[in-house]
Structure formats: C-alpha cells, structure tokens
Amino acid sequence: MKKDKLPEVEKVVLPKFLGMRPGKYILIALVIVILILFFLIGILPGILNGGRYVSFNSELSNVGIILDEKYIGSTEGSRIFVPSGEHRVEFIKDSEVIYSETLKIDHPIVLTLIFKRTLDVNVPVANNKEIYQRALISTIEQIEAYSAITDYSEFYNYPPLIENLARDAASCGINDVAEELFFISNFITSNEMKLDLDNAIKLFEDNNINYKSDSFNNLYSKLDDILDSNSDMVYLNTINSVNLPKKENNMFVYDETEFTIGSDSLVNIFGINTYPVKQVVKPFAVSTSYVSEYDYALFISENPYWAKSNIDTLIQDGMVDEYYLAGIFPSVDNKSLLPIRNVSWYAANAYCEWLSKKDNESYRLLSEAEWEVVAASCENKNYSNSLIVIDNDETLPKGVKGCLWELTSTSYIPLSRISGLYNSDISYPTTDVVIKGGSFINNSTTIKPSDVGVIEKKTTSEYTGFRVAKDI
Questions:
Q1: Is 201 left (phi over 0), alpha (psi -120 to 50) or beta?
Q2: Which phi and psi (to 5°) does residue 285 adopt?
Q3: Does residue 41 carry a pLDDT above 90?
Q4: Element (H, E) at 88
Q5: Residue 1 class from Cβ within 10 Å (0-12 exposed, 13-18 middle, 19+ buried)?
Q6: Residue 383: is its pLDDT beyond 60?
Q7: Helix 178-185 vs helix 161-171: angle between axes, to the nearest 10 degrees?
Q8: CB 66: neighbour CB atoms within 10 A?
C-alpha cells in the first residue's frame, strides 16, 4: 500500500522577548512567581506580624498573666502570641503579683506561618511560704462556699481545690500540712470533695509532705459513712438541766453548767448540724432582749462609718451586703423598741465593741452553746410570731424562741461536731456563722432549739437580729 505524503508544515518560531529565547524568559518568569509566592507566604507575614508564641509555665495552680497591664489568661496550658518588642509581664495569684519581668521578643521573619517561633517563660516560686499562705486562705474560702452543695450535676462541676493546694504546697517547699488539711477536711460534704481530697493526698505522698495527724486520721476514717445516706443514728442520751438565771443590771446571769447541744441525729451529712456535743459552758450574762432600733441608732450616731448613707463603702469593705438596714431608718429621735434587723455579723460585733467601750465591759455575741442554755431555761415560753414580743415574765430573757434568728459567735463548720474541732480554737478565717432560734415567719412547730441556721458574715436579713452577752 502506498503511503500518502504529508503536506509541508511551516515551523512555529516563538518570538524572542528582550532578546531572550522563550525557554529562558519562561524560566525567569517561573522563578519570579516562586520568589513572589515565597515572599508573600514565607517573608511578608513575619514582617507584618513579628513575634513569638510564648508558653507561660508555673508549677503553681491558678496563676494569671498580665501582659502590658492587660489580663490575657492563666498559665494553665497557655500558648499566647506576643508581638516583637519589649513587654512587661506580671504573674498574679490570689490577687497578688508573685513575679514580674520585662519580656524581650525578637522579630523572626522567615517562614513564620509554617514554623511557629516559640518561647518558654517560667515562674520561679520555690520555697515561698507567703504565696502558700495566701493560697491556703483562698482555698479555705472556696471550700467553705462549695461545702454548701452536697450533690453535683453534669451542669455544675466541682473544681480541684484541695488538689491545687497540694500542688501549691509542693511548689512552695512546704513539708507539713497536717493542721490545715484537718481543718479543710471538716468541709467535705460531697463525694466530689472527697475525691478531691484523695487526689490531694496522693500529691502529698508523692512529694513527701506530711498530712497526717490523729485528728485527721479519725475524721478521714468516718468520711465514707458520713457521705452515705444510710448511716446509724446517734442519740443524745442526756437530760440537760439548767438552773434559772439571776437578773443583775438588766442582764440575766447563768451559772457554769455541763450541757449537751444538739439532738438525736443520723451520723451522716443530713445529721451533722445537730450531732450532739457535750459542752462545759462557763458563767455568762445575756441581755434581756434584742438590741433595738433605738440602741442601734445611738451606735450609728457615734460611728458614722456604719450609717446607712455609707453603704457603698461598707459593701466595698466586705462588711455588709446591699440590703443593709433596708426598710429601717434608725433614729435617736424615735425611740423604737423593735429589734434591729438587716444588719450583718460584722455590724453586730462592731456594736458590741462600741457598747463595751461605753460601759467599760466586754460585750460580745452569744455562742451557740450559750444560746442553747438560754433556750433550755426558756423551754416553757411561747414562740414569738411577730417582731413585737408579748411576754410579761421578767424572770427570763424575752423573744428567745421565734421573733428573729439570733446571730452567734460560733463559726459554722459542717463536720466540726463529729471531728472534735467544735471544741477547739479555730485559727483560720471562716465566712459563715451559726444563727439560732427561728423567726416570726417560721413554723413554730418545726423549729427546735437544736436547729442550726447558717448565714454569711456580711449578709443582712430582715429575719435576723442579735442580743449581747458577756463573760462573768
């Protein structure tokens, strides 16, 4: 078969550019494109946004970072971009600056989008007992607040408070935490808190920190039973007998007496408030009735700091809440004998201090045990269902049952009756105090002298008042 002859085709010749053959200028164009891309991706981001990703590290828990006077987060897992230049960085814990330095960040340019330039900044804190003490007080405040919750849900989590304190103790070189751990353990009111305590114990053991004491071991051995709703009953097994008081200078004087506070109770979280505890109550005297609105007006007239007009300062100082003296207008021109209310525990103590100086005495609030002694002597009196106490009996204090809940000097610590802490001096600050007696809005058939109310020291309530007492 004969092949067909193909037609002649004219050669295609690409034109030259600037005297360069096509292969050359195409190569140059590709190189230029690559260089431009490299500049846009590998150089320009570094020029426009120079800096480093800084990891701020601390062995302490809950350390905040302030960069150039702006809070930027905590050291927990931090990786924060810091622009190039000089920066002032401060580390805060429990509202105090624990370390600061000037941070110098260079200006890396090449391939910053691909290779993140990093820098580690560590917070030195070794053997710093002052930091630990602040952490301890903060932990106690938070533990006290969380102890009010006995059951947590998936929507409300409990943070690792005691575990964080253990971490702080190890970081600060603390070698013995037995005293504070026993105190903190008195606020364990849920299984979540117990787990937190167990995790802290493991950290203490890993860091050779002593946490054991006879008191702690005794309480720890009971925690599982306390947190179990199916526990045994403990019975009062005591008939309290109180001698009638003597009236002297408008106060009732009670002799020293052995008295068991509380009542028959379950040995669990539901019975901790009324768990019976034997007390030796020293001689004391108590006022006939509550401090009145007129009494409080005299106090304010000589102490303008506590005037209602100064409420903003009082709130700022943590002395009261926003309801201080709400609806009440104490006046020295109006001798109102209604009991003062909507005052805080701090205000009540300030009143006692003022009256002590005026009378050259040492007035104070009743303790819980003293209040129960007074209540036992008033057992046959009627419950007061109003602010006006109708009582013609002049041989005993008035309005002990009902009228208003009474502020006491006794700190509320949930497990203190079971642990033995109740009869010990407390060396740590607490937020809550015990109130007793019920008020005019409560059902008189359900309020017993052994019942325990709880109120925060700065909280005010229109259903809470106080009376004064003194040692004899």
A1: alpha
A2: -125, 150
A3: no
A4: strand 85-93
A5: exposed
A6: yes
A7: 170
A8: 16
